[in-house]
């Protein structure tokens, strides 16, 4: 397990002069910032993969199918076959040096870099940490660590530009569950989604332009791919589709390309239900079938590269395009811990800390 705490200082203040004899000393006066992402398996072998998928796919925010129907499916066919198959996919993108998924490596680096920049202005007052909704580091453990560091105010930052109950809300649920049995709860704020924030749009577009400038070809079409969700979640009121659509529209306007050359799609369909359309894999196959030879793909909904981008987009979908007759395929990386990516995280965090610092 990793040791994730990233602190910009070790000391804290306590209201000791107001404390009667015998009352326990609780450190206070500092502000915690918790970057929260999705999570990744601890290893690519069967049992760690199974534990990760079981935790993920048992989340009612992710799978809303009635338990009576879902449990036999999950514990029967899904958890006996998917761990090995997906473990092989994770093997292709695994960070061998640190023996972990790239999502973890990148999220840790984002937290470390954020701690460094906030430390320059706020000194010892701010403590930055990071946690995962599934697997490790656990949100509960990191919130307890922040309290131990003297944080009586915590800013929760779900690292999802577009809000979705299956990602942003479940990350917050996990944090709120940790607070439920605390006597002295910290004051808590939640950073809102940033799908239409000009700083985010500008960062995504300038990062894309820089990546495109490195290519030996100009794509005929750019596909903006977002992680999908079941269609039904949209009908039930989830704003995710609208957030994705707005991000795509603002990116296209900033990019200045017509709709036919700047397309949008949804990836990672799971199970037999209808998911948000158009599907990424079908769109890529259609491009190739209609004679497109050069394309680029980008996934602005992911704040860090992961299985869904490195393997599914840059592996699987590249293969579909080339197999269908395409000649040049470019995957444009996520913002990650790049200067543009850190500019976005810092901007969101500093804005949401206003009044606290
Ligand atoms: C089955 C339902 C799923 C929903 C709904 C869903 C929504 C959703 N997920 C992300 C971001 C990521 N998902 C990742 C992997 C992943 N997603 C699902 C299922 C759903 N996701 C599964 C089962 C998996 C694991 C891999 C697999 O078995 O296919 C990841 C990658 C994590 C990594 O370790 O690299 C991310 C990130 C979003 C943004 C989203 C809805 C908006
Ligand atoms: Fe997912
Ligand atoms: Fe996938």
UniProtKB/TrEMBL annotation:
PROSITE patterns: FERROCHELATASE
Binding site for Fe(2+): 227, 308
Metabolic or biological pathway: Porphyrin-containing compound metabolism; protoheme biosynthesis; protoheme from protoporphyrin-IX: step 1/1
Main location: cytoplasm
Class of this enzyme: lyase
Function: Catalyzes the ferrous insertion into protoporphyrin IX.
Residue ranges, compositional bias (Low complexity): 8-19
NCBIfam families: hemH (TIGR00109)
Disordered: annotated segments: 1-25
InterPro entries per UniProt: Ferrochelatase (IPR001015), Ferrochelatase_AS (IPR019772), Ferrochelatase_C (IPR033644), Ferrochelatase_N (IPR033659)
Superkingdom assignment: Bacteria
Keyword vocabulary terms for this entry: Cytoplasm, Heme biosynthesis, Iron, Lyase, Metal-binding, Porphyrin biosynthesis
Record-level GO BP terms: heme biosynthetic process
Protein name (Swiss-Prot/TrEMBL): Ferrochelatase
This protein's record includes keyword Cytoplasm: yes
Location of the protein in the cell: Cytoplasm
Species of provenance: Enterovirga aerilata
């Amino acid at each position: 397990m990793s040791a994730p705490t990233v602190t910009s200082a070790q000391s804290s203040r306590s209201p000791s002069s107001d404390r009667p004899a015998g009352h326990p000393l609780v450190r206070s006066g500092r502000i915690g910032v918790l970057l929260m992402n999705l999570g990744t398996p601890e290893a690519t072998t069967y049992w760690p993969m199974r534990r990760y998928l079981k935790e993920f796919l048992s989340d009612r925010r992710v799978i809303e199918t009635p338990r009576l129907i879902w449990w036999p499916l999950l514990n029967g066919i899904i958890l006996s076959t998917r761990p090995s198959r997906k473990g092989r996919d994770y093997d292709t993108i695994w960070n061998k040096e640190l023996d972990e998924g790239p999502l973890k490596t990148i999220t840790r680096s984002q937290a470390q870099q954020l701690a460094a920049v906030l430390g320059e202005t706020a000194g010892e007052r701010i403590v930055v940490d990071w946690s995962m909704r599934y697997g490790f580091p656990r949100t509960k453990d990191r919130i307890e660590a922040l309290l131990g560091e003297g944080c009586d105010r915590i800013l929760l930052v779900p690292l999802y530009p577009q809000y979705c109950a299956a990602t942003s809300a479940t990350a917050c649920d996990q944090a709120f569950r940790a607070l439920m049995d605390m006597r002295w709860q910290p004051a808590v704020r939640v950073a809102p989604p940033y799908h239409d924030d000009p700083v985010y749009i500008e960062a995504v577009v300038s990062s894309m332009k820089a990546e495109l400038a490195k290519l030996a070809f100009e794509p005929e079409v750019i596909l903006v791919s977002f992680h999908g969700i079941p269609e039904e979640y949209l009908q039930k009121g989830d704003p995710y589709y609208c957030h994705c659509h707005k991000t795509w529209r603002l990116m296209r306007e900033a990019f200045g390309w017509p709709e036919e050359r700047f397309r949008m799609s949804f990836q990672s369909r799971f199970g037999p239900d209808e998911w948000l359309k158009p599907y990424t894999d079908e769109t890529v196959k259609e491009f190739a079938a209609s004679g497109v030879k050069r394309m680029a793909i980008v996934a602005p909904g992911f704040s860090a590269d992961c299985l869904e981008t490195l393997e599914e987009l840059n592996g699987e979908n590249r293969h579909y395009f080339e197999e269908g007759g395409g000649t040049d395929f470019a995957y444009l990386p996520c913002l990650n811990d790049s200067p543009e990516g850190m500019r976005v995280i810092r901007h969101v965090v500093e804005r949401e800390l206003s009044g606290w610092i």
